[in-house]
Amino acid sequence: MAEMEPERSRNGRAMGGGIGETYPLQRLRRRRPRLLRGSQWTSNGTKAVCAGRAVNRANSAAALLRWACAELAALDDPRAEAEWLLAATLGCRRATLHARLQECPDETALQRLRERVERRGRGEPLAYVLGSAEFWNLDLACDARALVPRPETELLVEWGLECLRGRTAPRVADLGTGSGAIALALARDCPQAFVLGVERDAAALQLAAENRRRYRATNLTLSRGDWLDALRASSFELIVANPPYVAPGDPRLAPEVARFEPHAALFAGADGLAALRAIVVAAPHGLAPAGWLLCEHAPDQASAVRGLMIEAGLSEVSTRPDLAGHPRATGGRSALLREHASPARRATGRGWHHGNGP
Ligand SMILES: C[S@@+](CC[C@H](N)C(=O)[O-])C[C@H]1O[C@@H](n2cnc3c(N)ncnc32)[C@H](O)[C@@H]1O
Fold first, then answer.
1. Are residues 75 and 187 in the same domain?
2. What stretches in the chain show pLDDT beneath 70?
3. pTM score of the predicted model
4. Are residues 113 and 186 in the same domain?
5. pLDDT at 223
6. Is the same domain home to 306 and 168?
7. Most buried by CB count within 10 Å: which residue of 60, 155, 209, 303?
């Protein structure tokens, strides 16, 4: 199909729309959505009338694609969204959808597509509707148990891998691991590292465990806990965190994000800085000498986070922009020489297994 768009991220790659800002693929246009208005599907499935269009059961995938596009017209990129949903329904990749457009999907597929289009039309994140999200080079299981991993969070992975370069068996902690996105990306791209993913929410931790199984990441351990409490006396060469950092009532938060994504993953105290504050204050106790702390934050929190890191005694404090040019992550380094966890614990890597992970 000549007009097929090239394969691109389902998560709005490189758009730089953080949690605290309008998220590109979830943004509904201002005009009133006409999604599924007047949709009527007959119980025997022989004929469906959706938004005034007749869709016959014998219709081809091409006709269904046109129908889905029309139903999702209120979204920013209805064509791309319709292609993702139809490809998932047919069990193929979006890039190969063009080869399937003459097929006539059966009633089960029709029903599944209709449900998916309805969910997306109500504003549910595409990643939840599809049950998967792209992050880094991973295809992660994704649902309402955890935040949809954002493209701008890949900055933490990129920066983290830079910090780990040349280290032989570094220990890494990902605080608030959610779906396990950052932890898995680091564990896979730095196979010599031992990575610990910490998460307070049991359901999110289960999702992270599913993703760990999906990628057979034997160098990733998951633990339920509260930020650095789960690290106890361990010393980490790298601690990364993408904590909640939105203030309740922040008008920049897209309503669909607040409606569908876990609030524990979004909101952090009256100023949005509560989680960042807790992490930065405690981080020096969890870092190995010359270890790095890297935190994601909203663009307007960059100077506050740099201040917190300097106050906590970290050096080489700096902020990096995401691909959209927004100050998105700030990092700092612990002192080179410092008392830290015992050599025995460092050698065995013990101190992060608490038996309460999935
Ligand atoms: C913004 S989400 C980030 C999820 C994932 N790391 C990512 O980048 O997609 C923040 C995560 O921190 C978790 N969280 C919130 N408070 C926590 C706490 N006190 N200790 C550990 N995790 C916490 C939330 O449940 C959520 O999964």
1. no
2. 1-58, 232-234, 337-358
3. 0.83
4. no
5. 96
6. yes
7. 155
